[in-house]
Design goal:
Bound molecules: zinc ion
Number of strands: 19
Radius of gyration: 23 Å
Structural class: alpha/beta
Helix content: 40-55%
Oligomer: single chain
Shape: globular
Strand content: 15-25%
């Protein structure tokens, strides 16, 4: 009895005296931790210690256990832990137009369906409900950061912050009257108020989003860049998405879309170009020289038959290349696992080269590559001590994931968004073992279904 008691006292003393048993907020233990750090280190098994908003250590589980203690431990010992996925191009509320008009070319799709539908339905309420639905889908499929361009962007920012996601959110500026601005000048004033309201937010980076060069005149494009530079915020635009856009630029400006924007001083670090499908080698060099981030959106480009972005050329040139889904109306989901798979397949198919965009490169594009494209590589995109704790844990036990030889192969070629079990952003657990902590699933879905009735009626008229 006395010996037992002594043993208990000694054990307690050892535990208390263990040097470095620092108290942190969350510890996540995984079968494998894919860090995406510079050495592309993979730990099997591995664990991540999180304190507040930051990662404090990544190591073997026993090492983490000997150094840290936390009120919450997430046991993902049968799962793979990796950096949260970064979607570099979407229009979150467009989930409300999912499946409304499919199987059309971009200009017809935009001008006959999407722009009229938006004119009749887009409101602060629409944007709020749509963003919540998009956030639900993103959290459930492992996206932790997204870049957005839409209207009433302050409502998107509020809903994103409430859901706990990180966002680079661009207020759209467009030449014709839209739901939140009658003129581009009004849109710019709205963008400025939005920037002022959110520029110090820990999760939201406000941005200015001129829709495209074919939907804005020169004065508006220049004013967008000037506004962004005044506040040191990003500029997001669509670039060279279709051959029609190239034709427009040639007729109107006698040059390529990229070179026209270069000629008006549009490009610089902190600009993000979505698509970049129809670019020349000279265009790619301009984008590289100016430090422009490019979002590749393979699913949208395939569905709208826009063309194939020269991904291998971008990669060879060292352009910061991220991966996006584009809006759900042209995809039709926000699942970044599918985007990674399609990015890999499309590059192989287009180049007649099965070695193009291997799994590890597709994973780079959705993690550290996306962070670079957004200029956020010092804070997110990889699991490293000192970076923000944005990470996911993914199940690897489905029939289609068995056997498991190479987790990176499985993440790209067989994993789906639904396999994500846990999503953490800025150190906060948004979903643990599929249980949501910031959104009420039933309410989000019911609100969206109620709003869909109005959307359908508006489009029928
Ligand atoms: Zn887009």
């Amino acid at each position: 009895m006395r010996a037992q008691l002594t043993a208990v006292i000694v054990a307690a003393a050892v535990a208390a005296a263990q040097p470095g048993r620092r108290s942190v907020s969350v510890i996540v233990i995984g079968r494998t931790v894919i860090t995406e750090n510079a050495a592309r280190q993979i730990l099997s098994p591995g664990a991540v210690a999180i304190s507040g908003t930051d990662i404090v250590a990544i190591d073997r589980p026993e090492t983490i256990a000997s150094r840290y203690t936390a009120p919450e431990t997430i046991d993902a010992r049968d799962q793979v832990i990796l950096p949260g996925l970064i979607n570099t191009h979407t229009h979150a509320p467009m989930v409300m137009f999912r499946g409304l008009a499919d199987d059309l070319a971009l200009m017809e799709w935009l001008q006959k369906y999407i722009f009229p539908a938006e004119a009749k339905t887009v409101s602060p309420e629409f944007v709020r409900i749509g963003t919540r639905l998009a956030a639900l889908e993103m959290i459930e499929s492992g996206t932790t950061t997204y870049a957005d361009m839409y209207y009433f962007e302050e409502e998107i920012a509020k809903a994103t912050r409430e859901a706990g996601l990180r966002g680079v959110l661009g207020q759209t500026i467009i030449q014709f009257p839209v739901a939140d601005a009658k003129t581009p000048v009004e849109g710019l004033a709205r963008a400025e108020r939005f920037i002022q309201a959110f520029r110090d937010d820990p999760l939201i980076i406000p941005a200015v989003a001129p829709h495209a060069l074919y939907t804005n005149d020169r004065a508006t494009l220049v004013a967008c860049v000037e506004l962004a530079r005044k506040y040191h915020v990003p500029v997001i635009t669509h670039l060279a998405e279709t051959e029609d856009e190239v034709r427009f630029a040639r007729e109107r400006h006698q040059t390529t879309p990229t070179q026209y924007l270069e000629s008006i001083g549009f490009w610089g670090p902190g600009t993000l170009a979505a698509h970049g499908v129809w670019v020349t080698d000279d265009d790619v060099q301009i984008l590289k020289r100016r430090g422009v981030g490019v979002s590749h959106n393979p699913e949208s480009n395939m569905k709208l038959a826009s063309g194939t972005a020269p991904v291998t050329t971008y990669l060879a040139a060292g352009v910061a290349l991220g991966l996006g889904t584009d809006g759900a109306a042209s995809n039709n989901d926000l699942d970044m696992f599918e985007a990674m798979r399609q990015a890999s397949f499309l590059a192989k198919h287009a180049n007649h080269d099965p070695t193009a965009v291997p799994a590890r490169i597709a994973l780079d594009m959705a993690t550290i590559g996306g962070a670079r494209a957004l200029g956020l590589q010092d804070t997110i995109g990889s699991l490293e001590a000192g970076k923000r704790a944005d990470l996911i844990a993914v199940s690897m036990s489905a029939a289609r994931q068995t056997p498991l030889y190479d987790p990176v192969s499985h993440l790209i070629y067989v994993t789906r968004g639904d396999d994500v079990r846990t999503t953490i952003v800025n150190g906060k657990v948004l979903m643990n073992d599929r249980l949501l902590r910031t959104l009420d699933r039933a309410t989000v879905i019911a609100d969206a279904n109620r709003l869909a009735v109005k959307v359908r009626d508006a489009v029928r008229q």
